[in-house]
Amino acid sequence: MSGLRGKPVDALYASEAAAELAALADEIAAHDKRYHRDDAPTISDAEYDALRIRNAAIEARFPDLVRADSPSRAVGAEVSEKFGKIRHAVPMLSLDNAFSEEDIADFITRIRRFLRLHDDTPVALTAEPKIDGLSLSLRYENGVLVHAATRGDGQEGEDVTANARTIADIPHRLAAPDLLDPPPPVFEVRGEVYMSHADFAALNARALADGTQTYANPRNAAAGSLRQLDAAITRERALKFYAYAWGEVSDMPAGTQTGMVEALKGFGFKTNDLMARFDSVEGLLSHYRMIEARRAALGYDIDGVVYKVDDLELQRRLGFVSRSPRWAVAHKFPAEKAVTVLEAIDIQVGRTGALTPVARLRPVTVGGVVVTNATLHNAEEIERLGVKIGDTVRVQRAGDVIPQILGVEASPADAVAFTFPHLCPCELKTPVVREVTASGVEGVVSRCSGEFACPYQRIEHLRHFVSRRAFDIEGLGEKQIEFFFNDPDLPVKSPADIFTLAARDAASLKKLKDKDGFGALSVAKLFEAIEARRMIALDRMIYGLGIRHVGEATARVLARAYGSWGAFHDAALKVAGGDVTARGEMDALEDIGDAVLDAIARYFSEPHNLELVERLASALSIQDAERPAAESPVAGMTIVFTGALERMSRDEAKAMAERLGAKAAGSVSKKTDLVVAGPGAGSKLADARKFGVEVIDEAEWFRRIGG
Ligand code: IVH
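Above: inputs. Below: predicted complex with 2-(butylsulfanyl)adenosine.
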């Protein structure tokens, strides 16, 4: 950092200003690279913003000193589209995490219950290391590698085919051993790209010698190396690949997980030698302990052990809950810990107005990653930990989770207690209120009561709207949102304003292309990206609204259940209006309960939101949700299962109906299309008769859906 920093801009001499602008240009460019290219930022967003603000202030006072490589000219450059996108034929999912032996026992119990297996019926599972790299999907057609895609958001990833071809462990053509000859015409192989400890150390040593960017850990190094525009650089990086899963496969070469991995090996892939198959929880756990004991000597990073149901037919029956399979779980190793000094506590205001205290830490390496911030959650947590500013604290980091403070190690005499603010730090200084739950109990969350007036909440709402899993507008990242929020000529105060930007720019005298940091090209690209998002998937739209408790998974459930924006909007308005039937129907959906229903009711009763929704709906073309298996004989039906079922559990029946494009409801109404009743069915059967709903038994159900 430049020694001049800190001197008021007004007091700078031109020579000092020039030196500081040069230093800032270098420093900001380095942070941009760490953030965008290497996925490894080393400072907080606020610290980064402070650098840019300082740069802008100096440039405002010394306009003649603005450099050609000034960071103020580079808005949008860092978000340039590097790779094309590839839609995954089969989504790439994540795994649920488990942290204790009890979690694993529960996992097995849930599987047994779902499949209605007896307690002593053995269920075989595999156990294998969870590689700490990044997942990659390789598509082979007639045995030839046609493309490679990163996971991305699970639905769509980046096209890294040229780079993947440089990895020695990835065959360009599948081997065809006699017993498996020939490979399936379509075969998507999935696995993990990673870097060994030795290659990581060598790469960083070279970078240090050359004065170029080093990486924080092998995972970041693997990600950064795979995502190089120049595949020749990827080739030099010595990446490795383990195959452990698959996507679309035209003819399955085996019926078990172990058989498939054996087949992958036969086709020429590296598979992990530490994979084994067990019939009992004890077997899995002892394998976990063995792998944990050998962890340090493996030569590559792993962060847990993955258990998978071996029989693929059982996997199919178990299916998925939102983004993770029911048939697999990641048993994570315990978190890594370190000790450092708590230097300050800042308050952040989130999208819903929640005030979160954030600990600013003296930088410390925890398990290979430099940690500078930790969450303190809320006022209660600060009190529970008894932590003061200046204390030496124990921190832990587990996987991708935000680091946490575990406790105080030492407290010097001059440590300062933190007083939680009673006013929002925003310019309105709105009073902070403690949340009260439905049952009247005071919660732990403090919220700014400013809602639509609080600038922090409005900016956070916009950030959420353009975020990767919502509208994902290329060139409109966090920083650009802040720019437009504060721009007097083309203000973006609400998500709907994004879609009027181009028209307002055309009508405005002060054109965006003439502003600092924009050029004609980047403006054209931005408007193009916004135009492209006028067509939006229903689940992204629902998620983008930022309704509390409606995360991505819930948005997807709602989108699938209602199918169209019109149907969802109608239902939401009815729920807001207190319509009991509409609420009951929404309540019957998987993973939707009172918290979500209340949040939807509140959202759709609020005039600001109704206006926003109205403006968005007229500006956008909201795509109907993909109805799974639309050609199935029960697609689009609302079905109720009742009474004792013999071949499947109630949960499995519901999941099966949803897979076939039907909606599984919990109660019978005149909108129910079909009731599947087993022995002992009571009031629901009576309701079905009352409303004239068709009733069938379990055997007929299987006949209809084709076995
Ligand atoms: S199985 C349906 N097996 O963990 C899930 N994943 O949290 C298919 N990973 O995105 C994944 N080692 O990148 C599986 N042996 C392993 C793995 C593994 C690492 C990663 C993978 C995935 C993430 C899920």
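The longest helix spans residues 14-37.
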